Structures are given as structure tokens and as C-alpha cells.
């Protein structure tokens, strides 16, 4: 039952990544095919874990060694895959940071483009800037590359970068008519979103590591219990398998 709950949690997390439209996950998911692939993998792993939990229970109750062996093997594969994924993320973190910078940079440059397909992505980025109280990826200067702002002689700024009542779009800068401005004139947050995301990760690192460690411990316990039950079952008795 515990592994079925764990599988349901993993499955739900994968579905949430695909369905969520109002967070930083959306920016990554819509801009990077690898995250969408990862979400499908999570859904597959979650479904497999639920199935393995059922087979493990069936094998333990009916003392069927082949089911317990299959349960052990699948848990081991899942655990090895999770460890490998964690190592890849750790050793490729600089590459991932560069990819994020590229994704967000392109989003900021093309923000407010006439393409309706980008609207959800822009709304998600506005949500990120509002929630983290940040502006741009490195800082507000990133928005100087936006085509609309350039055409407006820097006299507008993204509303989500400030404490404005508007959550999206651009706000007008209070400057004399026919004058120009710079990002330094904007009443926006000084913190870049990269620093905000890193700070959030550091603040929640203990929780993240705790959850990952807990999942790994549960899987290890399941492997130990299944192999112990296998050793205690001296012979196969397929007559105990429920008939369909």
C-alpha cells in the first residue's frame, strides 16, 4: 500500500508538470522539450511503482517468489535511475543554468509579441516575477533587449517587475513627453529572478533532500523485505495465485 501511495505521488507530480500553467515550471516546460519528456517519464515511473506495489503485495500474501523477485528487480532499476538522474543534474548544473538563461532571455526579448501561442508562457513569467519579487533573469537590464520597450524609448517597463496593481503587460514611466529613459529609472525590483530561484532552492534544500532521501529509504526497505521474503519461501506454489 505504501508503494502504491508513493507511485500515486510520483504520477501526480508528473501530471502537475504537464498541466500547470502559472509557475516557473511552465516557463521551463513550454521552452524545453527535455522537461516535458521528464514529466512523461515521471508519469511512467509512478504508474510502474503503483503496479509494482500491487505485485509486491500479491507476491507477499500468496508467497509467490517470482512476483517478489520481479518487485525487487523493478525497485532496484527505479532506484538506480533516480540516483543516475540526480548525479546528471548535479554535474550538469552549469549547463542547465546556461540553458535557463537562454530560455528566459528569448522569452524577455519577445515578450508582448503578436504570437498568441506565447501568451501562456508570458503569463507564467509574469507570475514568477510577481511571486519571487524579481525582474529579469540577471536583473532589470535584461528587459532593455525587449523590442516593444525599445520602440517606446524605454519609457515603459514590465508591470510584473514592480508592486503595480497590474500583473502583466507594460506600465508607463512618468517622464517628460518625447524623452527617453533607462532601466535605472524604472520603479522595479533590483533582484534578478536567477538569484531569487537560487535563494528559494537554498531555503528549501533541506525539504527537497529530505523527500528524496525518504523515497530512497522506502525503496531500499521494500527491496530488503522482498528479498527476505523470497529467501523464506522454499518452493513455488502457483496454486496460491488467485484465478481470474
Please give a structural write-up:
By secondary structure, this protein is mostly helical. The chain has a domain at 98-207: Orthogonal Bundle (Cd81 Antigen, Extracellular Domain, Chain: A). Helix content is 65%, strand content 2%. The protein has helices at 2-19, 24-31, 33-62, 65-91, 93-109, 119-132, 147-151, 193-203, 205-232; strands at residues 156-158, 170-172. It has a two-stranded antiparallel ribbon with strand order 1-2. Helix 1 (2-19) packs antiparallel against helix 3, helix 2 (24-31) runs antiparallel to helix 6 and helix 4 packs antiparallel against helix 9. The protein is elongated and about 85 Å long. It is a multi-pass membrane protein. Its main location: membrane. InterPro entries: Tetraspanin/Peripherin (IPR018499), Tetraspanin_animals (IPR000301), Tetraspanin_CS (IPR018503), Tetraspanin_EC2_sf (IPR008952).
- Text of the CATH class of the domain at 98-207: Mainly Alpha
Secondary structure class reads mainly alpha
Distance between the termini: 21 Å
Assembly type: single chain
The CATH topology of the domain at 98-207, please? Cd81 Antigen, Extracellular Domain, Chain: A
Mean pLDDT across residues? 76
Helix content: 55-70%
The CATH architecture of the domain at 98-207 = Orthogonal Bundle
Weakly predicted, low-confidence segments: none
CATH 4th-level superfamily of the domain at 98-207: Tetraspanin
Shape label: elongated
Amino acid at each position: 500500500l505504501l508503494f502504491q501511495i508513493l507511485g500515486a505521488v510520483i504520477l501526480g507530480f508528473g501530471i502537475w508538470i504537464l498541466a500547470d500553467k502559472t509557475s516557473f515550471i511552465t516557463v521551463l516546460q513550454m521552452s524545453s522539450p527535455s522537461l516535458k519528456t521528464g514529466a512523461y517519464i515521471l508519469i511512467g515511473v509512478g504508474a510502474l511503482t503503483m503496479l509494482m506495489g500491487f505485485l509486491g503485495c500479491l507476491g507477499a500474501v500468496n508467497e509467490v517468489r517470482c512476483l517478489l523477485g520481479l518487485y525487487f528487480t523493478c525497485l532496484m532499476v527505479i532506484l538506480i535511475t533516480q540516483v543516475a538522474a540526480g548525479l546528471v543534474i548535479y554535474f550538469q548544473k552549469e549547463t542547465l543554468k546556461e540553458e535557463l538563461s537562454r530560455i528566459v532571455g528569448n522569452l524577455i526579448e519577445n515578450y508582448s509579441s503578436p504570437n498568441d501561442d506565447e501568451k501562456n508562457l508570458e503569463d507564467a513569467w509574469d507570475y514568477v516575477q510577481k511571486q519571487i519579487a524579481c525582474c529579469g533573469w540577471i536583473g532589470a537590464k535584461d528587459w532593455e533587449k525587449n523590442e516593444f520597450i525599445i520602440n517606446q524609448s524605454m519609457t515603459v517597463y514590465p508591470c510584473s517587475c514592480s508592486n503595480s496593481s497590474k500583473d502583466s503587460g507594460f506600465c508607463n514611466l512618468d517622464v517628460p513627453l518625447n524623452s527617453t529613459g533607462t532601466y535605472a529609472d524604472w520603479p522595479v525590483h533590483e533582484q534578478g529572478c536567477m538569484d531569487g530561484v537560487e535563494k528559494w532552492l537554498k531555503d528549501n534544500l533541506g525539504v527537497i533532500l529530505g523527500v528524496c532521501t525518504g523515497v530512497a529509504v522506502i525503496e531500499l526497505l521494500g527491496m530488503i523485505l522482498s528479498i527476505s521474503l523470497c529467501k523464506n519461501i522454499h518452493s513455488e506454489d502457483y496454486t496460491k495465485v488467485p484465478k481470474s
